[in-house]
Design goal:
Helix 2 runs antiparallel to helix 3 (93-107). The chain is 49% helix and 16% strand. By secondary structure, it is α+β, with helices and mostly antiparallel strands. The chain has helices spanning 54-66, 72-87, 93-107, 111-119, 122-133; strands spanning 4-8, 13-16, 19-22, 28-32, 39-41. It has a three-stranded antiparallel sheet with strand order 3-2-5, with no helix packed on it. A two-stranded antiparallel ribbon has the order 1-4. The chain folds into two domains: 1-45, no CATH class; 46-134.
Length: 134
């Protein structure tokens, strides 16, 4: 496996093992070869007060794993329950694909990939919640 590859925009910030790094003035690509490194794009970060929907709460739980604030082994079951709960609502084929990818990623300790898969559902969740309010 080649590891995680991050494509960074100019001045984009990432958190790696507790250290905030900022990209330079040009786009760049970084390969993370160390397995189990705690990595989070700060543009993907969710503030605790913004974790106010089921998908965002699941993403926030993954974010805590990526920042090293939660032990992956201790929250794995909770993460899988979050994903299972989401599978009761998101029944279209593409959403199922994202949820399956998130589940496989959590089980394989690929938390960044799990976060990426779940983030794809945020816009769909917003549409569902807006339709429910209307």
């Amino acid at each position: 496996m080649s590891g995680l590859v991050l494509k960074l925009s100019p001045k984009e910030r990432i958190l790696i093992n507790g250290a905030v790094l900022e990209n330079g003035d040009r786009r760049s690509r970084i390969s993370i070869l160390t397995p189990n490194a705690n990595i989070l794009r700060l543009r993907d970060a969710i503030h605790p007060t913004d974790a106010d929907t089921p998908v965002k709460r699941a993403c926030y739980a993954l974010q805590l794993v990526l920042t090293g604030d939660s032990n992956p082994d201790e929250v794995e079951l909770t993460l899988l329950r979050h994903i299972e709960d989401l599978s009761q609502v998101f029944i279209d084929a593409d959403s199922r694909k994202q949820l399956t990818l998130a589940t496989q990623s959590v089980l394989g300790a690929r938390h960044y990939q799990a976060l990426k898969a779940l983030r794809a559902l945020i816009a769909r969740e917003e549409r569902l919640l807006a339709a429910r309010r209307a």
